[in-house]
Amino acid sequence: MIFENRAKIYDKGALASVYHYDTVYDGILRSDVSFFNQRKEKIVGSFFQAASRAPGNPCLIYLHDLSSNHCDGFDIVPHFIGFGINVLLFDFRCCGLSEGDCFSYGYYEINDIEAAITYLKSVYSVLSVILYGKGFGAKLALKASNCYKHILGVICEDPIYSFSESIWDSSFCFIGRYMIQHKMNNHLKKKFGITIDSLDNRALIQKSTSPVFIMCSEDCRQGFNLFQCIGSRNKFINTGKSMHNVVAFVLDAFDLEVDGECDISDDFE
């Protein structure tokens, strides 16, 4: 799992009729999408296009966690479609059904985000995006916000601030944690010429200027450490999983007015 990250491969055919929304969301259905990253690897995912698009044709991009795939983000779609915000979810390289030989813990996966933004701009004329990352995806979202244009904000759910801290916060015994970190470091050095600590991007996070919203539990040490590290003055942290403040953050970042007919008070499970 540490090196291949091929968990949770799904049946693409089973997604054909996923999310038959009620009339509030005009029966919006998903569309299969695919594009290529810089390594010429095919990245696949799902695109939900709002029936009545908001000014600027904005889009929220969901970035999944380790050992996961884009299907884990389907539950957030109804919270944004009703406001005219499109939603793109995709599998990182070497995850789900996307191509890729060996997971690099962000070294190559960061380019998947750039490819997604380029795809949205060329195919759907999307001019602005917000990144919604979970765990590992949150870590990459912050890095991408400092590297690519058109990103107006970042949402981090239960973010990973440091891979080393994640390992040492795990339930493994001391020797087990040491061995995992040692093996992962050797893997990264051999495959990509990097170390586990070089993936933390702390200096880049400290220079961040994009608005950031962190959503985590009260005992999420990495979430609070990340909040302290972020350089942006426009940063927020919320303990709990209510989507009300998340949606409000997105609407503000896209400079959109709240539609009174849409409910944004539902908790996110």
Q: Care to describe what's here?
A:
With 269 residues, the chain is of the alpha/beta class. It is built from eight helices and eight strands. An eight-stranded mixed β-sheet has the order 1-2-4-3-5-6-7-8, with helices on both faces. The model is unreliable at 20-26 and 260-269 (pLDDT under 50).
Share in β-strands: 15-25%
Question: Rg from C-alpha positions?
Answer: 18 Å
Name the CATH superfamily assignment of the largest domain.
Alpha/Beta hydrolase fold, catalytic domain
Number of helices: 8
* Main β sheet profile: 8 strands, mixed
Number of strands: 8
CATH fold naming of the largest domain: Rossmann fold
Question: How do the strands and helices of this protein lay out in sequence?
Answer:
Elements: E1 31-36, E2 42-48, E3 59-63, H1 77-81, E4 86-90, H2 110-124, E5 129-134, H3 136-145, E6 151-157, H4 163-168, H5 174-192, H6 202-206, E7 212-216, H7 221-229, E8 235-239, H8 244-253
Parallel strand pairs: 3-4, 3-5, 5-6, 6-7, 7-8
Antiparallel strand pairs: 1-2, 2-4
Key descriptive features of the protein:
alpha/beta; Rossmann fold; 269 residues; globular; disordered C terminus; eight-stranded mixed beta sheet; single chain; 2 domains; 8 strands
Short description:
The chain has 269 residues and is an alpha/beta fold.
